[in-house]
């Protein structure tokens, strides 16, 4: 069970950040004014790596503004996005550390953009983002000293997620060993002609208690809250999930939404194929990052049992308009909440499903593979240039030391 904060708007002085800059945890100097932080990106196929970047950026200031690029800009510099710009705008808005988004932000980050939105500095991960002609998109803000770096989340990338969908293997599930098919994918998918980029390469995600604590704020339900329970896979956490959870959140004036996440093997039982695409540890962080979610139960039972409902003092159980698949014993998993009269079907108004996302990827497989190869080739060229520059710098320093010794 993981607490994930409470309502969408943070209380003054709360962990989510006091928007007036008067949080008691801030230094006297910081309390004088609000520090405004800028992030930007494609945010295509938003995953917990993106959320972690925004969490770190928000922690560097008081107010986080996120610029999201248009489909046209992404297609020009990287290749076709999986999600439309409208879908990507809404996904970023749903991340609980984001205070404001700017639609159609320029692909190259300039001082003009930072000044336009009164931002003190820009934050980006410790990878590199390049334009279509191979130039660093953050060069101008770096040179002006208005650039900060945060750590990239190891073990997750859009490249890896796309590969899982295309391979249709189960090797990413939480208790299955990697096999030769998956290893071949990690060696070859998106690999440029000159080897792996350190920024695009596939690596294994390792869950830690510290990472969970960072994503979960730990607030308990308050008197008068309506405890709402939902359960499912929430695989490849996407805009369909966001629309559903937003509508669940709107069922009460003071909602406390608990999401029960099923273990990988349970999801595979009722979804089949190689689902879930993300294992339970990855899905946990993805859901915790959503501003409409208060708490997560990792490995929730498939059925909403009497024990579960009583333990969490659940007032309402919600399910989307998707088909309810019966339990292993052919029983209705929502029989008890229906008996209590607390079951409600929620129409998200969004037909997007995880299956539909996978279909988008498979349909455009060659385009996405070409995009990743092109991206990695550009990154490798920059990486090799940086490496060569560092080697030359070290040689110069060594020559200086030798000359100094000879003079003495």
The fraction of residues in strands falls at: 5-15%
SSE ordering: EHEHEHHEHEHEHHHEHEHHEHEHEHH
Largest sheet: 6 strands, mixed
- The gyration radius over C-alpha positions equals 23 Å
Q: What is the percent of helical residues?
A: 25-40%
Instruction: Count the beta strands.
Output: 11
User: Averaging pLDDT over every residue, what do you get?
Assistant: 82
Distance between the termini: 67 Å
Structural class by helix and strand composition: alpha/beta
Please tell me what the overall shape is: elongated
**Count of alpha/pi helices:** 16
Name the poorly predicted regions.
5-26, 177-203
Strand order in the largest sheet: 1-9-8-7-10-11
Please outline the helices and strands:
Blueprint: E1 2-3, H1 28-31, E2 36-41, H2 48-59, E3 63-68, H3 71-77, H4 85-93, E4 100-103, H5 111-116, E5 121-125, H6 139-143, E6 147-150, H7 158-167, H8 180-188, H9 209-215, E7 226-232, H10 239-249, E8 255-261, H11 264-271, H12 280-288, E9 295-298, H13 306-311, E10 316-319, H14 335-340, E11 343-345, H15 354-363, H16 365-407
Parallel strand pairs: 2-3, 2-5, 3-4, 5-6, 7-8, 7-10, 8-9, 10-11
Antiparallel strand pairs: 1-9
Helix pairs in contact: 7-8
